[in-house]
Amino acid sequence: MRAGELERTVDFLIAEGFIEVVEAGAGRPARAPVANDPVIFAAIKIRAMTEIRGWLGPVADLLASEINRCSTPLGLRENLRSLEDALVRLMGKEEGVALARRIGSELTRLMPKNPSE
């Protein structure tokens, strides 16, 4: 972030559910991304590869193999920028960005505070 953008960035992170405001010393455990569960992470990768193949057919094999090679949610999240660039070139700006954002949002979705949520 650039100088002077801290407040706006924090507001965005709160609004999107990436962070939350808690009282000091509240002792609440942090919520972990759902994608940290290996089964859920595998399902996210399969959905991403399936959607890319649906859009691009056999051309998608290289991108799908890049996704499949990622062994952690953080690793896939770090590779999303280059994947997004390739998706934009192959699918067009709107669809490529939208797909990369869908994958990213699944990787950062947090575990509910209560199991009933």
Report what the structure shows:
With 117 residues, the chain is mainly alpha-helical. Helix content is 62%, strand content 0%. Helix 2 runs antiparallel to helix 3, helix 2 packs antiparallel against helix 5 and helix 4 packs antiparallel against helix 5 (93-108). The longest helix is centred in the middle third of the chain and has 19 residues, at 38-56. It is globular. The two termini are 32 Å apart. The mean pLDDT is 83.
Summary of the model, kept short:
The chain is mostly helical. It has helices spanning 6-15, 38-56, 61-69, 73-91, 93-108.
How many extended strands?
A: 0
Largest sheet: none
Q: Determine the mean pLDDT.
A: 83
What's the helix-strand series? Answer: HHHHH
Structural class: mainly alpha
Topology:
Layout: H1 6-15, H2 38-56, H3 61-69, H4 73-91, H5 93-108
Helix pairs in contact: 2-3, 2-4, 2-5, 4-5
Q: What descriptive keywords fit this protein?
A:
single chain; 117 residues; mainly alpha; 5 helices; 62% helix; globular
